[in-house]
Structure formats: C-alpha cells, structure tokens
Structures
1.
Amino acid sequence: MAKIGVFVCHCGTNIAKTVDVSRVVQASGRLPSVAHAAEYRYMCSEPGQQMIREAIAEKGLDRIVVAACSPHLHERTFRNCASAAGLNPYLVEMSNIREQCSWCHHDREVATERAYEQVAMTVAKAYHDTPLSQNSLPVERRALVIGGGIAGIQAALDIGDAGYPVTLVERTPSIGGRMAQFDKTFPTLDCSACILTPKMVECASHPNIRMLTYSEVEELSGFIGNFEAKIRMKARSVDLKECKGCGDCWEKCPRKNIPSEFDAELGKRTAIYVPFPQAVPNVPVIDRANCIYFETGKCGVCKKRCPVGCIDYDQQDEIITERFGAVVVATGFDVMDTSVYGEYGGGRFANIMSGLQFERLMNASGPTGGHLVRPSDGQEPRTVVFVQCVGSRDEDKGHEYCSKVCCMYTAKHATLLKDKMPNVDAYVFYIDIRATGKNYEEFIRRAQRHYGVQYVRGRVSRIYPEGDRLVVCGADTLMGEQVQVEADLVVLASAAEPRSNAKEVARMLGIGQDKDGFFAEAHPKLRPVENLTAGIYLAGACQFIKDIPDTVAGASAAASKVAALFAKDHLLSEAQIAAVDPEICRGCLQCVEVCPFSAIEESTYKDPFRRIERTVAKVNPNVCMGCGTCAAGCFAGAAELAGFRDEQVFDEIATAVATEAVMELSWAVAPETESEA
Amino acid sequence: MTTYAYFPGCSLNGTSKEYGASTLSLSRALGIELEELDDWSCCGATSAHCAGKEVSEALAARNVALAADTGRDLVVPCAACYNRTRRAAQAMEDRKTRERLSQIMGRTLGDPVHVLHLLELFARPEVTEKLQAMVTRPLSGTKVAAYYGCLLLRPKDTGIDDPENPTIMDGLLRQCGVEPVEWYFKAECCGASLAIPQASAVEHLVSRIITNARSWGAEMIVTACPLCQVNLETRQSTEPGTQPMPVLYFTQVLGLAVGIVPHDLCVPSRVADALTREAVTAGGE
C-alpha cells in the first residue's frame, strides 16, 4: 500500500485568495493511500521544503503530491527536495492549482472544489509512480557554429576562448554577415567595418576556431553531446592555402556585370570575386554559374594571371562528417522584398530603395564609393524621404511584428545623410518612434534637433513619379493634414524577416519555428538562447530581429551555455522517456513518423516464441525528449512514456470524470487521517 | 455563341447609354450573347450599404438569384453594380447568410452563380484572341490612359486586379492595337457621388487626374465605370485654349478598333473622326 503525502501551497494569496486550502487538505487527507496532508504559505521556501523532508522521514511517505504552481516553475525544486530526503525524485508529482485553478476562477466555492479534484487526480496518478533513473552520456567537447555573421563570430570566439574547439560554417565566401554590409552603427556612429574586422581577423587566427567559408551544413543527426554533422565545402575553384589575395584574377576577369549580392544588387561584381575588400578569408571564389570558362570552356584569364597558380577549375565539392557536442545556430535574417507594396511602386522605380541598399550607397566600399546619388541618373538628390514600417506592423501585406531596428537605422540614415550633405532635405514618415535602447532616444532627438531631419507622423499612402522626381503622398496625423513631398530618393525601412530557407534549415536541424518563421527559443523569458532540442542554441536574428548589442549579448549567452555543457564530465539523459515494447509492437512505424525529435527508428526483433524476425520500432533513449507523442499515436499500445504510463493517465482521467463519487467514497471509506494546519 | 446572363443596372440605360450600347454591339460582334436578366432590380449602389448590410446584400442577391435561375454566369459592366453583386454572391457562399437572405426574399436561394465584370470577360485569353483577330483599325496613333477608379479594384476580395497597379485594361487595349501610356493615377479617386453635394471637390480631383494623364502623353482616357466617365468628362475644367480630354468606355474604343460604326457605339463623330483619321495616317506610313 502506497503512503502518499499531499502538500498544498497557499502561494501567499495567489492560491489561498480563491481556494480554501484547509478544506482541500482535509478532504485530500481522506483520499485512499494518502497518509499525510499538510499546507504551508510558501511550499517552495526552505521551511516548506523542510516540512516535506521531515514528513518523508517521520511518516515513511513513499509518494509526494505537491499542489502548487506549474511544474515548469518548481517541479525540479520538489524533486530535489525529495531526493535529499532519500526518495526517488520521480515519485514526486505536482498538481497545478494556481495557473490552472486559482488564477482562472473567481468563485471561492467552485475553485476549492476544483482544486480538490485536481489533487485527487494527481494522487491517482502518483499511486502508480515508479522510481526512474537517468543514464549517463559522454560529451563531445567540440562546438559547431552555423553562420558567420557577428552572432556566429562572437559565439565562436567565446567558445574558443573558453578552451573548446569550434567549427564555424559560413555559406558565403567570407564571414562578416550583415554587419559587414552596414556603413555606420547606431547610436555611436562608429564605422561598422572598423569594429567588425578585428573580430573577423581574430576569428580566422584563433587557435581553437576552424573556419569553413563557402560551406553549408547539410545534415545533422544525433543528440546533445553527440551530434554528427555533414558539411559540404563547396568548390571554391581557388586554392585556399596558396592564394595570397593579390587581386590580379578579379581585376582582369572579363565578366564584370554580375549584380553584387553584397551591394544589395546595386553594384556589380566579377565572376571570380571576393565579396568585399575586408573579406576574411581574403580569397576569391569562382561563381561557376556566371563564369565564361564554365559556360564555354574558353577564357581562363584568371588562371593565366594568377602569380601563384592557385586557380583550380577541376576542384570538387568536398563533404566532411564531424562530431560535435553542441550546435549554435546563427543564420541571420533576410530583408523583406517590398514589391508587394504597389502603392510604393512595387519595385518598378529605381529611386525607391531598401534601407540596406541605402546603407551600401553611403558606404565607402559600396558601389559609388560612398557618394550618394540617384540610381536612375547618377544625380545627387536634393530631397530624400524615409518611410518607416514597410512590411512591419502590417498584417495585410507584411508582418504583424515590429522589426525593432528600423526606427534606429532610419534615424542613422537621415543623420548620416545630413552630415554628409547638409543641404539635402530629409523627411521621415513614422507611425511611432521606438527607441528603447541605451542612448537611443537621445540619438533620435539629435537627428531631429541638431541635424534638422523632418519627422512626419503618419503613413505614406503612395509614391508616384512625376517628371524625374517622386511624389510622396501621406498624412501628417499631428497636423491633421494631407502632405505631399517631392523627393529624388525614397528609402523604405523594409522589414527584416526570417531567412527564405529557414523552414528547410529548421527541419534539417530538427528545431522549431515560431508563427513568423523565426527559430523558436525554449522559453521566451527564461531560456531565450536555447532551443527545445537539447544541445542546440540560438544566436542573433535567426531567433528574432536584434540590433548589434543584443546580438552580441545573445551570442555570448549561447556560448556560455555551450561552455557550461562542455564543462561537465558527462550528461544525464532524460528519465521520463518513451520505450516501445517489442512484444506488442506490430511494426507499423506510426511512432517514427510522429516523433518530432527523430528519436525512434526502425529495428528488428527476434521473436523468441514464434522464432521469427520482425520489424519493430525502437526508441533511442538519448534522443527522446519525453513528449509522449509516440505513446498517444501508437495503435497497439506498445509505446509508453515512463511517468505517464497508460494506467497513470487513465486513472487520472477516471478520477476526473468520477470525482463526485470518489469524493463521497473518500469521505465515507478512507480511514481518519490526521491533517496538519 | 456563348451566352451569359447580363445585368445592365440603371446607368447603362440612363447616363451611360453609350456604355450599354457599345457593350452590346461589341459582344454581338464577338459572338457573345448577353441575355438581360428578366425583372432585374437595383443593385443597392452606395446608398443601400450605408443604410444596412442586410438590405444591401438582399437587393443585389436578388439579381444573383435571377441569374442562377438561368444557370448562366452573370456579366456586369457597371463598376458599382459589379462590386455590389459580387459582394452579394460572396455573402451567399455562407450558409447562414444565405438562409437569412432567403427569409428576407421569401424564396429559397441556391448556390450563387459566378459574377464577373465585363473587363474580366473580355480579358479571358480566348475572347481577347478573337478580338485581336477582328481588329481592322488599330488605333495605334492615339495614346490612351486606362483609368480604373476604385470600385473595380477595392476592396481586395472583390477587386478584379492589383488595386495599386492594375493592368488588366492596359493589356486588353494593347493586344487590340491601342497604345496605353504608363501613368500613375489609374486608381486615383474621381470624387464619385460627391459630384452632387460638393462639385468643387470633384472638379479638383478630376483636374488632377486629367493633368496627370496629359503629363504622361495621353490624348484620351479610357474607363470601365459609368460614374468615373461622367465625372471625368463633365467635371473637367474647360480653360480657354485647351481641348477637352475625351473620356470613352473601353468598349467604345475596342468597338472602333474592330470596325463597328461609331453610331452603334455612341461615339461622337468628332472623336471617331479624329481617332480613325490618325489610325489611317499611322497605318499609311
């Protein structure tokens, strides 16, 4: 006969205000198998925990039910408490009478009854609890960082500095990412490249960092501490070790008219190219899709010009497979294509551009050498209009969310413009100004007061060409008037959004996405850099749009999580995991399909009675996260989740639907049990 | 011969007789029969939906039901009629709304028929191809501005094209040898019924549209809405020395291109002469 102890928490007044805790304790004390019932103001406090420990020792309790808040908050607390008293931690159950009862009821009578019913259900489940234990796993102390922007660079440097080897994989020919494209950074206006390049160089020369540029992760398998990644190192067509980056090859390349991705399509590049002058590594790649040699078999100018003979047209993609203990995902963001905005020209007018394009036009390494001109005719503008929230805060055509950085980068653009060309008129159309970082509000004020940028509160309704200029029509909602501005250049603060391939990457890595497509963190407040898949961490804008300070802070946080993981000798696996009983399994493999963590695989089972081999499903205990989807999906009842076995769940349900009867029964039949106040 | 149910609405028998006449002439030439709904009623126009949702839906749904009785898709040339009728057909998709409308009307409503604007019908590839083959007088000497107004395009779910940059009429005209200009006031407001309470507002809006069309080289405006046509034609300022901008229905222009006599299209002879003369000159070069 089990001896269950029930401990009901007041949570100050959080529970006690709507639930008559004493009555719940009295009634619970009469439930079958309950040997002890008690209450306390704060069960999670040290005296509360001591009360539980003492009761275990004195009354010989072998199951504990704590009726308090969500197990998300304190399950671990009470398991540790039981453990300290010598009880297996998996013999502790929590009944959430706060979020699921006291917080959602107003009527004290109803809430008290409901709380008691919940306790009765949990007691029924606890009755069937069995001791569980965790397995010990080894840890591969090497990290994989995916994405070589500022987030990936920072994470790699921090993990490397902690003494662990890191492999940094970057899809494009150079690390640097978005930050390398920016001209200046807000709110300090330091040159983006000047503060980024030292970190890029440090990354390249760090003894613990192995940098794989022009490479992509194609497959990831395994689990925390024991991942295996397949990485494709794309053929660069240039010998990475021998090349000195002299530039003879790209200066002489005859194909010069390819739109430059790095210059947001505003500039041109050659077929053999480095994306930007400060690229790391400073080694070009041949864009085979646009190379004359690869198109016609003739040309070979770069090969002839190369003084060290490092051009290799026959180079092949190389695929390597390596083991890692942790993965940091830092794949960044895309700028939204705003051509859905027909009212803003829908991409038809050359002089309407995105903020990123403006950034490149202002940049000394950009297509015009930092000279701001209209793309249509190369003339200097006299009036520039900035339109905020294009694609952000717009459920109809764009995204519901605020892109967070646009208010600041628009103020930066306008400031830089007025600084460089004081006679140009700058207008900013905005809905609200969101400048919540350190020195951000001051930065906006400076743009308005010192630089004389005209801020107009209102939406732009449409933009159309008149002659060689653009007419921007909008509302000034502070003046209550319609306004029209004739502009030479219009800069749209285009929304930032998840990478176009975020879905495929999420599937490849086995990580979740939120409703907007960003990679989902494990908890929005308390686990912001972790993913629900253990061992995978998020850094930078792939989780949600961040400015540079937040990106760097998040990347360091992810790195510290990795370092903490690697500091352990071994890992403990989940104890509440699923298992498939091969005797019952009929091999339909439905569970393999529904498992969100790819933890179940096909296996064969030698049936000792029928002496045949048949297909069954088998759970990898190290990968299983204990979600229970397989148990719910198993037609045969072969898959079962430890701690949530069928008899536990069914008894819980039976108690829920028959509580009145149980209640009567408990009042009538259960032996008198002393309850503490 | 393909037959469609046809709802002319009040305008096509009144202020825009020329739209009605040219629609029928052009359809006949194309071998499309437009069979006028028997006993059709008011679509509700702008007044009904200001008075109430149900009355506006019921008025237009009656015509959709009449079309359903014939079993034919319903073609509507007037932009306002189209907007209301299409909206009613969409409302009838909802079972509850349909039951309520049946109750109001005292008859059981079936599935709504497909409601299409005349432009949508002519822009169907097979119809456009046929039209193209019939062109005998390509009016390529005249630059026209295709003007859409609001009701053909908004709201988005009843609109027949991109509300910000519509191209359906431009494409149709171009394929039939007419030269539409690229301009940016295609969907600008004409002032609509403000013509009655506040004519000056309409005059201001119309003059902006006409000026903009002129600045992009247009010599004529082509429209598909009776109210737009009336406003643009009659409310434009007639400053001494400026020629008024002709405003025609797209059916009239296409009718001229396929050689229908101006009289059957209600095209003023002055305009027809000018257009065909230029076309002949252009053709003779």
2.
Amino acid sequence: MKRRTVLRVNGEDHELLIKPNRTLLEVLRHDLHLTGAKEACGIGACGACTVLVNGSPVNSCITLAVDVEGKEIETIEGLVQGDHLHPLQKTFIDHHAFQCGFCTPGMIMTAKALLQRNTVPTEEEVKKALSGNLCRCTGYINIIHAILRAAEEIRKSRDAHD
Amino acid sequence: MPMIDFKHVKKGVRRPDGELIVTGRAQYTVDIELPGMLYAKILRSPYPHARIKDIKIERAEEIPGVKMVVTGKDIGCRRFSFLDTPTSPADETPLAVEKVRFVGEGIAAVAAVTEEIATKALDLIEVEYEELPTVFDPEEALKDGAPAVHDVIEPNTTTAWEDFGIPKKIRSYKVVNNISNKTLIEYGDIERAFKEADHIREDRFVIPATSHVAMEPHAAVASYQPTGKLDVWLSHMGYEHKRFWLAKLLDIPVSRVRVHKTYVGGAFGGKISFFPYEFIAAYFSKLTLRPVKITLSREEVCSVCPPSRRMIVTVKTGVKHDGRITAQDVKVIDDVGAYRSSSPTAMYLTHTFRNPIYDIPNVRHEAYGVYTNKLYTVAKRGHGMPQMSFAIESHLDMICEDLGLDKVEMRLKNFRKKGDLLPNGDTLRSYALPECLKQAAENIGWKEKYGRKRFRGLGIGTASMFSGGHNFPFGSAAIVRLSHDGKIILYTGQTEFGNGVDTVMAQIVAEVLNCNIDDIIVHSGDSEVCPHDIGNWLSAGVFISGKAVMNAALDLKEQMITYAEEGLRIPADGLEMVHGWIVSRSDKTKRVSFSDISKYAIQKAGGDPLIGKGYSKCVPEVYFWRGEFNKMASLSSGKGRFTEAYGLAASTAEVEVNPETGEVKILEIVVADDCGTPINVTSVEGQILSQAVMGIGDVLFEEVVMKKGMVRNPNLLEYKIPTAGDIPKIISIIVDSYEPRGPFGAKEVGETARAAVIAAIANAICNAIGTRLYTLPMTPDRIQKAILESERK
C-alpha cells in the first residue's frame, strides 16, 4: 500500500506517494532524480549512499524513506550555494581526493557531518569518521588531507566573519 | 635523459572535470534512466555442474508488467570470450544452453517494467536440473577420469583476429584433462644450468582469487532503435571490445553500435571483458524496442562476475654461491573456473611481466589454464603479476636466507640493465629498477633496521608491466580540431574510469600547442564520435593513445604554422606558439591568434577547418595481414615482440607482528616507481597510493572464499577491503627514467606497483615471524599457526 509522505530534501518539501518498504536511497534516486548518492553494496557497508538526516550521516540504502519524514535530509546536490562550491568540494578537487568519483558524494557528506560537530578534527578523528566509507581508488590519503584542509578553510572563513 | 623544459606535462594538474564529480553530477551507467525503460534480472544456477533438463517460463510470463522472458535455448550458442583467437576459440554463452558449469551461471532472464517485478518473476521460473559430478581442485581436474567441465568447444563465429585479416581459420577445441590453454616458454639450457648451480631451491605457492571491488557495480543500459541502431551505456574499460561482441552476437554492424561516454566507477581489470548481462540488455532491447537496464547487485558482482586469477605457482631456482641466478623453472596452474576468459594471455604474462626484472640466462616457464566448476576468473590490476611477484620474491628471499645474502644486494646483482635486449627482441630503452630498489631500501632504512628487532620485519618486492601490446584492437587514433573561437577539441577513444586520462590527454595537447589546458575540450569514450582506440588495458592508455593524441596535436600544429607562415610572411622556424597565439620569435608584435588562424584557413584555403590526425601502435613493426606475419607475440611459446616499454617498480615495507594474536601492523610502505615522465604528477602519485593500499588488502584481508563452488563472502561485510583506518605511512617516489618511445617520455604507471607492494609486505611479515607463509592473505590465524609450527620444529 502506497503512503503519502513528505520528504524535506535540501530545504525543499517533496510530496510523494511511496510504498513503506522503499529505501530512502531508491526514493532519492528514482523519484527525486537526485543520483549523487550511489548504491554500491546495498547493505550499509560501504557509505556510497551517505546522506545527512538532521545533520547526521546515514546509509540511505538501509534507511526507509517513510522513517525520515519530517526530518531535514541533505544530499550532495544541496551542498553548492549558488555558484559557490562548499569548501569540502573545493579541497577534494585541489587535493586530488577522488579518482573514479563513485564514493565521493558519500565521502563528502560524511566529512560535512564530521566538520559540523568537530571544527578541529585530528587525522585520527578523520580516519575514524571515514571508517564506514569505502574507496577503492585513492588509498584514502588525499581524502584525509582534503578534509583537514577544508576544516582549516571553514575555520578561517568563520574567524574572518567574527 | 633529455632535459626538457615542460610547460604543461610533468606538473600536478587538477582535473578539469572535478566539479562534476564533487557535485554528484558525473553520470555513471547506474544513473542512466530513459523513457519507457525496462529492467532486467537474471536467474542463476544454484548448482556448480548440472544438465538443464527443462525450463518452464509460463508462470513468469503471466505476471503483469513482465515484458519478456528468455532462456539459454532461445538465445542459443552465441559464443564469446575475452580472448578469442583461432587456437583459443570463445567458450562462453550469454545464458547456459545445455548445462551449467558454475554456481551463479545465468539460466534465464526477465525484462519487466520494474526491477521488483522482474525479481518476482524469476521466482516463478521452474528449472529441472540433473546434477553432474563436479571438480573444484585444478590439480584433480588435470587427472585422467576427472569430470569434464567442457567437451568440444565448437566455434560458430569468426574471431576478431580473422575479421582483422589473419589467415588462420578458427578450429574447434577438444578439451583434454580440463586443460583450457597451455604456455611453454624456454630459453638457454636449463638442465645444464641446474647441474652447475651451487644451490637449488624449490617452493610452491597457492594464491586465491580476490575481488576487484570497483565501487560502481556492473551495469548496462541498451536502447535499440527500429532503424537498426544500438545505443549502449556500459561500465567498462574500452569500447572496441564491447561493441565488437555486441555487433557480432546481435548481428548488427559494428558502426551501428554506439557505446556512449559515461563515467565509470572503477574497474581494475574487472570490467575488461564482455559480459552476459550486457548481451541480455541489448537482446531484450532489440526484441522489445524499449530501453533496457540491468544493474547487478553487489552480491552478483562478487559471485558471478570474474575475480582475479587463482594460481598455484611452483618455482625452482639455481644460483651460484654469490647469489647470481643461473636457472629458473616455473610451473603455473591457473584454476580458470568454468570459462577460459583471459587465461592464455595471463599465462604468457606470468613469464613476460617478470622477464624484464632479473637477468636469468636459462629459463623454463610452463603454464596451464585448467577448467573447474567454479566462478571463472579474469585480469586484475597487473594481470598475473601480483601472483608471480608474491611467489618469486618470497622464493628469492628464502634463497638469500639459505645463503646468508643481503636481500637488496642479491637483487641488485641480478637485475637487468638499461639497454638490455630481452630474449624475445624487446629492448629496455628506459630501465630504472636498480635506482628504484636503492631508493626504496634507503627510505625504509634497510641497512639500519634489518634484523634488529624481534617481530619487526622488512621486505622487498619488485614488479614490471607492459605499456600496452599488440592485442585487439591493435592501435589507437586521435583527432584534434581547431575551433574558430581558438579552442581545441580533442577526440580520443580512451575511457575515464578514475585514472584521470581525460586530463592527461588534455595536458599532452596543451604541451604540443603550448596553450591553456582550460582551452582544450576533451571528447572521450564515445565510440561513434571518437576514433579507433586500443582501450585502457595492459596499461596502454598513455603510451599508445597518448602518443596518438600527441601525434594528432603535432599534425594540427604543423597545419596551423603553415597558414601562419603564409599570413604573417614569417618562415615557420621563426614562429612559436604562446598561450593561444602564433608569435614571431624575433618580434612579439607580429602575431596571429589561434582563432584568427582558423578563420583565415576557412576563408582563404577553400574552407579548411584545421583538423589534426594522429595514430599509434605499441610496437610499430608488429603486424599481420593476410598471409604475412611480422614479429607477432605468441601466447603459447613467448616468441615475438611483446611491448615497446616496460614500467617497473620496487617496494619495501616494514611491519610489526603481534606473536600472541598474529595481528600485523604495517609501519611503513615505500614505493619507487619507474614510470618514465609522469605526465600528471598528482595523478601518478594517486595511482601509486591506490596500488599500495590495494596491496595491503591483498596481503592482509582479501580472498574470495569458495566452498563446493559457492562464493561464501559475496558482500562488503564479509569481504573486507582496506578502510581509512588501515592506512600506514606510505612514501611514493617517482623515478623518472624518460622512455624515448613514449609521449614526452611517459610509459606505464597504473598497474606495476600493486605487485611490488604485495611482495614487500608479505616478505616483511615472514621476516618478522622468522618463518614462511606460502599463501595469501596472511590472516592473524594463519600467522599464529605458522609461528606455532616453527616453534615446534
């Protein structure tokens, strides 16, 4: 039985008629055409489908869409502000922090959640935060550098505004 | 090495397409959705070996939303394979026709309006099987009387080679003792050399299959038009191979099959061959005239798509007291599984990739591909090299331990030299392996640290790799077009699967024309728009296609200079290209823009739009045409030319082992890679780091665990790959040897290092525990067991 569900994604409400067994990832990709989040394992083991729900990273492939009704959902598509890339997006490009790019949206969303709760993460804390996001291409090192650098950028821009 | 002041190559260049990736806009095959699309699913065999007695599809067909159901019988014996030569005819079919040969082989397929309906329909297909005797162990499979996985393989099409003009006719292949293919390479006098050796040692290694784990699962979208045109979107490594098989199996002209450009979410060799699901998508689309998509689940990728090759390697070596190697006898048994796939190539590569490393005058290399009732196997980053480097470098370490030799010095003593002519006629024009090993040893602190601390160990590994070869489709071309706004449009058939090849090709054009890299628009990976291309295999990309791109840019440059000479009335040698202008060397005020050169040629030269063309082949003198053959490599005898340039790498590693738990802590990995000129330094470093981390997984965690023909760990919880928390200190060193035949001195970089790192970590672990493991991965329980056994002795 389909159910009327309102999902708030990247600040916009979407009214949907969906079956309760559908995952958030399916709904984002097929109903809302937000294909940045990817399915790579289907069992919550790789993090390629990571999106933020009320600021926390979740594996959208094992999250039911109906369970996140009324919550703030953020996907990679919501990160760009006008023409401006998010600092994480910039540092991922500058630090060559992707190769095939398939895990990148999930990596960036996980990193965003980390930097929201910890503005001065250590290398170890970054590694720990990324432990649920698999990447087969980069060897992670450039991803870690990009995140540490983005943290610095965000701190600098906050200091400039204070 | 020529000192060249490069402006655009040998630099760290950011990927111009990076914004697509970090914003989630890069489009992969799994992201393609077309109006009216159907979704296909494949029913798979639960048995490793069984005759299909009957299939009933009626109940599945009746489900609302199901548009079509097919079985192997409907499709018939349309054979294909990764390798398909007159002596090794194709042995796969899209779906099993008479019998299944491994658990997971396709039996039937459904196309429906949703994936959910297609999956439901699969449950309603009834298959009656008659189970057959099975064979899982390749050494058992070789024995007389073992169950036969194949009988006679009857080819029913011509091969790619015949289509390209080779006069050899394909013949049927009678399988005896489950042998799918054989390679025997010999030179020197091995018997005599063993007799004269001071020390002889023999060891046997067993290497399991590992999964590629490209993050994007295998997927295909096909859309057939009533006009006879097939459009496909694939997750792949080169379109010529894919469209060749689609055309042949569906009876569509090659030029009417268009492989569209997509981003590819990783490949590592695992997406190299043509797959049954790709055929199924196209077949359904051709019959339903609707777009069809098929996306494999991770479980399917792990259990029905081929992982790396499983090998048993026995190596016997004769040495002199001083450590000089005089003879080596290698025997490889390749447990190919149900289908041969790339085994004939791999078995030749198990010799030819090790060949440029050590100068061994007397060699015998015998390799067999053997059919078993298991998941078939294929190339993975280094194609056979990781298995061989692990075996041979472990074996050499043991020889050094037997004779009390320094492991670095012994290797340095046996390395080949720059300029050496190999037994097959290849020349080592660039060769910095000794320098690589010296730097890797020095950086890890070999002299200071070796043997100093208990349960700490140091290890070395070496590896090498072709920069392409004379494999189908044999060569690459490129087109470079000057647009009338002064921008340059490049067409190359290369596939961007994370290697950064689009950026590298743009750098090459920018270097030739000395213009801004942002003024180059790259069209790649589209078989209809881009020219003939060898694909991104065997590390051919930069060396062959990059050379074609360089030649195309040089051709365009010459044309542009000719018109500038005419327009500016300055001789060609007095002109240079600077940031989109052609400028007089002596008077900088005399100049013409790229844009104006285009307009000038269109106006004054009969509409000439200025298009440069370039092409390249790995070894230019190798060819076949009708009855003529020249220096072609033989996969079975190792004669003929292999490649024009070898990439090389040496690695060292330091580890610490906890003797109580068997756990390994990797303290440091050093990789020194001789890749010629690194065109994009950051991409090259990325390739090296990537391989080092993949190597950690190979040694510590990864194995496709099989029991009775079933993959027991077909998911990313039970199959562990390295995570961010597993990364030690890694030092990557680029040893730029300048390869004279490569574009701007470049050669292979994406595949060698992995094998060197695997051998280095494995040797370091064995050095730490003072005993040997002869298999991978080196898990804590295996290490504990080895320590206990050695203590008992």
